[in-house]
């Protein structure tokens, strides 16, 4: 990567790491939330739905601020984590992952929920009559059939996580090599005299990563749909 | 013995069904669309839960509200062939077939993949995906998949309703083979009378969520109120007969039952084989004495047991012929002039003989129209 400076390379790799960790950790939760929202009705469902989607409508800065006061070393959860496990999230790479995980979570849930709702419940009923219990059905019928939605949900959320700015800078600040992801590096570059060229290069990287992610997502989703007999 | 007695609130109406049926053969739940037939087999499968009642097969209780028994669907071992196949789209035909089989302990597997594939003619489809299969092929795979789950009972919900006549003719013989070669009780939901007559041993007539009549196909088809319940105007009794002999020089066969004999065009079944006939009410002429000098060959002696209006100018008469039942449709005027009333001895003349060309193949009963 000759055309990237060490600082730019660091920002790119850090962004990939932050977004990747966020997606891997939140994916199972997103599947669970999508499953509950797509299949069950219960009292308080609207509230639950609202909470899941809240990060989509809240200003990211507010998300970052909420994280700051709850997950900071003096926050209720942050203080407990620090004292019990010695885990510190504020001003760390893991904290950046948490921030982007929260803001991209609704996007992931939405995509997965659509694919859950598209699965014919009759297939699950058929699997039941053939002797498959709930866990068995989830892994043999539901999960394979929702795979395309899962994949596109994960990739869209990944791209969004790569681009998250407000929540990250508010919660974990802008520390090069630690919390300075691509958008934060672009912001930093625009603040420096003569940083325009660097900002432009970083923006191009951002643009390319996003485009590649979407193209890969489309391609894989198409292949997956073929694989599960729906395309 | 299959013993079903359930009550269930289904919004629009109340399901209140009770019937028992022999385990041998096919029990057909017959009635119009929306009469509650599918709700009954969904309850038997455990996919829905009745408000009260019981469901038993042999010594096994699936559901009993009084004893608080409600066996989970996946533990009931009930094979279910859905109207819309419901094959798993992400699996090959082979994986679909093996889905239930793999969930049964090896020691309890009586039905193996090979024989089922042969029985249902699925050999060339094994590596294909459900998407590319025809409707008839899909239903055969669904049938095989249900069979291979080693079911205690096989439920079929209008398995041929979504198929055109050609595809239906393709799958019917397979269901007949299943009935005749596998020792598994079958409960078939259908609103197609021809299917029921061709396949059923026991018939449960359902109307408005209730059992209107149940019993052998001959007994139920001999009822005069059938068309009122089913909306089907193709009234005609069903006779179970056996091939007594063939008269090769005239290309005729003589079929016998406890009420007499019928002579029909040569059937492609061996002597001693059972044959089931539907005799339409409009094809039965009544006389008070055996006619002489007539071209009609088939005369059966019987006694009128019931008379009911069937149209502005016609009446239907139920005639006991031996232990069997015939239905005759005559004009009201003729009934009056001949003084036809319950108890009256009559001679039934069966006119017009037509057969379905498909008289080949195995199985104890074949339907033909006389």
Automatic annotation (TrEMBL), chain A:
Entry membrane topology: Multi-pass membrane protein
This protein's GO CC annotations: plasma membrane
Keyword check for Transmembrane: yes
Keywords: Cell inner membrane, Cell membrane, Membrane, Molybdenum, Transmembrane, Transmembrane helix, Transport
Transmembrane segments: 12-37, 57-82, 138-161, 202-221
Gene3D superfamilies, per database record: MetI-like
Annotated protein name in UniProt: Molybdenum transport system permease
Native source organism of the sequence: Azospirillum doebereinerae
TrEMBL record, chain B:
NCBIfam families: modC_ABC
Species: Azospirillum doebereinerae
This enzyme's EC code(s): 3.6.3.29
Keyword entries, A-Z: ATP-binding, Cell inner membrane, Cell membrane, Hydrolase, Membrane, Molybdenum, Nucleotide-binding, Translocase, Transport
Domain ABC transporter: 1-233
One GO MF term: ATP hydrolysis activity
GO cellular component: membrane
Annotated Gene3D superfamilies: 2.40.50.100, P-loop containing nucleotide triphosphate hydrolases
SMART domains linked: AAA (SM00382)
Pfam families from the UniProt entry: ABC_tran, TOBE
Protein's UniProt keywords contain ATP-binding: yes
Name recorded for this polypeptide: Molybdenum ABC transporter ATP-binding protein
Location of the Mop domain: 293-359
């Amino acid at each position: 990567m000759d055309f990237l400076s060490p600082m730019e390379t660091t920002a790119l790799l850090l962004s990939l790491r932050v977004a990747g960790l966020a997606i891997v950790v939140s994916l199972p939760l997103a599947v669970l939330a999508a499953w509950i929202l797509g299949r069950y009705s219960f009292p308080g469902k609207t509230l639950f739905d609202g909470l899941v989607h809240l990060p989509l409508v809240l200003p990211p800065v507010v998300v970052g601020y909420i994280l700051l006061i709850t997950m900071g070393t003096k926050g209720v959860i942050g203080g407990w984590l620090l004292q019990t496990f010695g885990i510190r999230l504020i001003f760390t790479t893991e904290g950046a992952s948490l921030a982007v995980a929260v803001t991209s979570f609704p996007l992931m849930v939405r995509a997965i929920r659509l694919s859950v709702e598209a699965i014919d419940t009759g297939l699950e009923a058929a699997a039941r009559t053939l002797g498959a219990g709930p866990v068995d059905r989830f892994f043999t019928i539901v999960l394979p059939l929702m795979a395309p939605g899962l994949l596109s949900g994960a990739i869209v959320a990944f791209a969004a996580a790569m681009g998250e700015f407000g929540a990250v800078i508010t919660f974990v600040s802008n520390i090069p090599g630690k919390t300075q992801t691509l958008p934060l590096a672009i912001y930093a570059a625009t603040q420096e005299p003569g940083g325009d060229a660097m900002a432009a290069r970083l923006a191009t990287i951002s643009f390319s990563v996003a485009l590649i992610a979407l193209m890969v997502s489309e391609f894989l989703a198409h292949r997956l749909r073929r694989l599960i007999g729906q395309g | 013995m299959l013993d079903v007695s359930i009550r269930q609130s289904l919004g629009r109406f109340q399901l209140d069904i009770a019937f028992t049926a022999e385990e041998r053969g096919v029990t057909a739940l017959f009635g119009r669309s929306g009469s509650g037939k599918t709700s009954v087999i969904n309850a038997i499968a455990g996919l829905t839960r009745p408000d009260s009642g019981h469901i038993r097969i042999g010594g096994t209780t699936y559901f009993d509200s009084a004893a608080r028994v409600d066996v989970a669907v996946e533990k009931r071992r009930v094979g279910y062939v859905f109207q819309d196949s419901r094959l798993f789209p992400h699996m090959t035909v082979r994986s679909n077939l093996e889905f239930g089989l793999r969930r049964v302990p090896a020691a309890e597997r009586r039905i193996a993949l090979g024989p089922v594939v042969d029985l249902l003619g699925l050999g060339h489809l094994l590596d294909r995906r459900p998407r590319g299969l025809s409707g008839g092929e899909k239903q055969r795979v669904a049938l095989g998949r249900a069979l291979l789950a080693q079911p205690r009972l096989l439920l079929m919900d209008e398995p041929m309703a979504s198929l055109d006549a050609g595809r239906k003719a393709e799958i019917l013989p397979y269901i007949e083979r299943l009935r005749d070669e596998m020792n598994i009780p079958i409960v078939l939901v259908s609103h197609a009378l021809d299917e029921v007559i061709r396949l059923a041993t026991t018939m449960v007539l359902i109307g408005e969520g209730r059992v209107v009549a149940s019993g052998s196909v001959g007994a139920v088809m001999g009822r005069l109120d059938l068309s009122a319940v089913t909306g089907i105007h193709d009234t005609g009794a069903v006779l179970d007969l056996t091939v007594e002999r063939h008269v090769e020089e005239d290309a005729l066969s003589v079929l016998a039952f406890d009420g007499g004999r019928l002579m029909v065009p040569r059937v492609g079944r061996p002597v001693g084989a059972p044959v089931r006939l539907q005799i339409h009410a409009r094809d039965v002429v009544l006389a008070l004495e055996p006619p002489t000098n007539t071209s009609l060959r088939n005369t059966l002696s019987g006694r009128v047991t019931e008379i009911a209006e069937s149209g502005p100018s016609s009446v239907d008469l139920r005639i006991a012929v031996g232990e069997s039942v015939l239905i005759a449709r005559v004009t009201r005027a003729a009934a009056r002039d001949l003084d036809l009333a319950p108890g009256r001895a009559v001679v039934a003349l069966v006119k017009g003989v037509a057969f379905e060309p498909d008289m080949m193949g195995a199985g104890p009963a074949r339907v033909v129209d006389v």
